[in-house]
Backbone:
């Protein structure tokens, strides 16, 4: 069994005068500190986890405070007042695996801030005021698996910023102000599985940039001011889940918007109130599609060819404009669920076939 770490927990009040030399996990939280004494950790050679949250820290200096923590694996600096981080501030933490700096008003990162922590697997910089990412910012942390930049003020993703992050699996960029994504922005993300772009200011799908994601599993672009999904927006991608909900200006899905997606299993397009038109060839080459959600949109009609392409060769499973239907009927040995409820369908020939389909089940 794994033995628990030797832990010291000091919350509020003054800093301890003596910290046991064999301490492996140290929590110093809720203190009123502008900075840390330079020698506070000088003898803690066994320290593996360090929690410095809620201390009001304004700066970390040039990083000498961490020089002797060569065994540290987890460092949490969240909920402080760190506005900037200088080059090499973490250089002594050569075994660091997880770094958390969220909710701190962080604005400025030197392009060499993360030098010296090459073993880092997880970096969380969420809920800050970061507005730009320098080209060399992440070059030294090439072993990263998770990067969280949610709830910042990033407006543009330039080409090459993630080039060195060949092991990254999860990239969280939701709740920023992203307007444009360079065609080469995702070059180097060879292992990326999850891309979160929800709640940004994208007016078009960054379709060329997405082509760099050869192992992508999930793409989430909900709540962006997209006006339409165009031909080739999602094509030749290995993703099994794509979500595009709550896009207030989305009016149409054009021919070939979702084309040749051999692994796509779930397509979520609900709660787009202005979505009134879907081209009959919008969904083509989706052999594994299991669930499509189009409820609470603005559809007055849905062409027969649309459902025929989704379900294959004109053979349909149960689908109804009034409710999401799940059942055990199979086409090509796979169940299909299509949810269309909450649309203002006009009962004419364009939707009559849905009624006919439902009569068979």
Residues:
């Amino acid at each position: 069994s794994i033995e628990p770490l030797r832990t010291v927990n000091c919350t509020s009040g003054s800093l301890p005068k003596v910290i046991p030399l064999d301490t492996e996990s140290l929590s110093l939280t809720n203190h009123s500190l502008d900075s840390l004494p330079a020698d506070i950790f000088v003898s803690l050679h066994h320290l593996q986890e360090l929690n410095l949250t809620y201390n009001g820290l304004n700066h970390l200096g040039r990083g000498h405070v961490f020089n002797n923590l060569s065994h540290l694996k987890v460092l949490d600096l969240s909920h402080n007042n760190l506005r900037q981080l200088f080059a090499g501030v973490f250089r002594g933490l050569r075994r660091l695996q997880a770094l958390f700096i969220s909710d701190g008003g962080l604005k400025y990162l030197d392009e060499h801030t993360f030098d010296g922590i090459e073993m880092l697997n997880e970096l969380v910089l969420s809920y800050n005021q970061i507005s730009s990412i320098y080209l060399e910012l992440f070059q030294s942390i090439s072993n990263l698996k998770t990067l969280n930049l949610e709830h910042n003020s990033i407006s543009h993703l330039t080409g090459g910023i993630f080039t060195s992050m060949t092991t990254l699996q999860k990239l969280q960029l939701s709740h920023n102000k992203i307007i444009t994504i360079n065609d080469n922005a995702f070059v180097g993300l060879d292992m990326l599985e999850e891309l979160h772009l929800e709640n940004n200011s994208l007016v078009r799908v960054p379709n060329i940039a997405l082509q760099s994601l050869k192992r992508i599993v999930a793409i989430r672009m909900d709540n962006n001011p997209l006006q339409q999904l165009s031909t080739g927006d999602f094509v030749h991608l290995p993703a099994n889940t794509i979500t595009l909900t709550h896009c207030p200006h989305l009016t149409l899905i054009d021919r070939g918007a979702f084309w040749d997606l051999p692994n796509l299993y779930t397509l979520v397009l609900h709660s787009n109130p202005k979505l009134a038109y879907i081209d009959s060839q919008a969904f083509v080459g989706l052999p594994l599609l299991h669930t499509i959600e189009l409820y609470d949109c603005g559809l007055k009609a849905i062409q027969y060819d649309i459902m025929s392409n989704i379900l294959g060769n004109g053979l349909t499973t149960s689908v109804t404009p009034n409710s999401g239907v799940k059942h055990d009927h199979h086409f090509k040995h796979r169940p299909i669920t299509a949810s269309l409820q909450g649309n203002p369908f006009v009962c004419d020939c364009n939707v009559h076939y849905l009624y006919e389909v439902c009569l068979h089940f």
About this structure: The first helix runs from residue 207 to 210. The chain has three domains: 1-130, 136-223, 226-361. Helices lie at 207-210, 304-311, 349-359.
